[in-house]
Automatic annotation (TrEMBL):
InterPro entries: CTDL_fold, PEGA, Sulfatase_Mod_Factor_Kinase, SUMF_dom, SUMF_sf. GO terms for molecular function: formylglycine-generating oxidase activity. Residues 1-23 form the signal peptide. Transmembrane segments: none annotated. Pfam families: FGE-sulfatase, PEGA. The keyword ATP-binding does not apply. It comes from Idiomarina ramblicola. Keywords: Coiled coil, Signal. Residues 386-617 form the Sulfatase-modifying factor enzyme-like domain. The lineage of its organism: Bacteria, Pseudomonadati, Pseudomonadota, Gammaproteobacteria, Alteromonadales. PANTHER family: FORMYLGLYCINE-GENERATING ENZYME, SULFATASE MODIFYING FACTOR 1, 2. Residues 303-366 form the PEGA domain. This is Sulfatase modifying factor 1.
Amino acid sequence: MMRLARLALIMASTLTFASTALAQQEMTVEEIANQISTLESDFENFSGTVNTLQQEERELREKLQNLRERNSELEEKRESALAEMNDRYQRLVEDPTIDIAGAQEAYKQAVMAHQQNKADIKQQVSLVNGKAREVEEARVSKHSLINEIETLKEQRNLARVERLENEFNRTGELEVSQSISCDRQETLGQCENRGKLMAKQKASKQYLNTILDGLSEASLARDNIEKASPNVQILGSKTVSNGFSGAGNYGVKLAVELRGQLPTSQACTLLNVDMRYCASEQRPGELQAGDEETVDSSVMHPLTIRSNVYDDEVVIDGVSYGSTPLEVMLPGGEHQIEILKYGYSAYAEEIILKDATSIRAELEKSDYSFTRGEKIQDILFRDVRGPELVVVPAGKFKMGDLVGNGLPNERPAETREIPTALGISDTEITVEQFGNFVEDTAYVTDAEKNGTCASLSQGRPQFNEKLSWKNPGFKQSESSPVVCVSYNDAKAYADWLTQKSGFKYSIPTEAEWEYAARSGSETDFWWGNDVGYGKANCRNCGTDWSNTRPAPVGSFHRNPWGLYDTVGNVWEWAETDDGVVVKGGAWNFTPSLARVSTKMELPSDFNSNYIGFRVVRTQ
């Protein structure tokens, strides 16, 4: 219990510094760095704490087993003592001189020992259950502490940007002297003005160098100065002295008042941090300005689509519009067009709709084998369909921390092979899809049976028996990713898909998950090494759902292989050789834990309102 008290103290300390907005504003970069160092030191002790708790649990279980084995021995002794006492009572009838006191005392002691052992077993069961809960709480708290550490790192970057702006955008005064030779063609006034202009230019350059030298991160800023365009504003000047020298040159001394000017975006450039620390608010899923040409989205344009096959399916921006021929009106701008038919290679095109457009798609018949980018959706029963799958190709890739930002369990990076193409659900399994499974099977999840769905409340782990996949503690819709499901629940769903569809479904291995999520990239996120702003649902990632609840699936852009939400939203179960892990980060976890190689080891019966899953199918 002392360890859990220490754990509560650590989490309370983290909460004080990382979760209180006022504290975040008041803490300096150095204070945040010190807090990170302290929490990282605490985190290093967690593995030992968890291992110690697990060892204590094993010892308690061994003692419980010994007590149960001893119970059988004591029962035999009690029965033997009872038989001996009964035998002496029968003999006493024939021979009143027989002493039965010893037999009575032996039976009394046997009964008392047996009853005490039963009481010890009951107490030991309580100790085992309590220790098991300590182990589970310690595991969850460890992950929560990682999240808070990474959140503090986010705050440190924000504080670094703010500090740089404050240090740069300051006002000062310099005295500078400038000597020039007056041209014969210019008047004295023109010569004087030119001298003052050159003096002001000199003052600006000197002041910029002074500012750079005075920065807390001067060396880093100078390394990146060529990538940015900081400037200096002249607020005013006054002449201290002027006149011609003996050599005939005109000299002027100015007292110049200046102020540094550094746009917020350039602060991120100088510090070499993600631009989201400097970004203005952006709506979820929007492209940054300049990512596409300007098109008036208020104007609707006709789009006509035809193909060479019948009974196909047209999907526009992830929404099914039925089969071809198709004529629709769409707003101007970028649209993703896909035409699918089982047994044919998929057609996919990205268009920028600016006027009336026609598409004629030629789909080629293929052998029954998965084709990269192909969409698959099995019919389970009646009008119920399985999750929509996208095919990822076979291939080799580098798995693990490739950039150097990872945790120890992401190293060393290694080359892995996915030997055959496979289908993977393009989104996390939704509430509606899981509901179809429950309705068909009357399945009861681990959380519903045991009341063990975990949540993070102000950075602290809590187990709430009222939470379940139907009521995860926040508003959700049928298109929300299902949460409060354990690996066991996810596997039961995959087994049900197998039974209903006739194809083999499973939970992805860690290698399959990371391969599909990377989609050919070797960066922390499929779009680069910076999470950006408004591109995914994670803590402080600039979306309507960040740190509030999961977004409906498919709320952000697909990765190049057609998968949604591999960054953030909810952690997803994956299998390893040694057990199970979760991948991908979540709505209430910091962006650095949403990197493609990040993983957290968890027991297979653990569940929380920030963990869901997707499935894979073999052909």
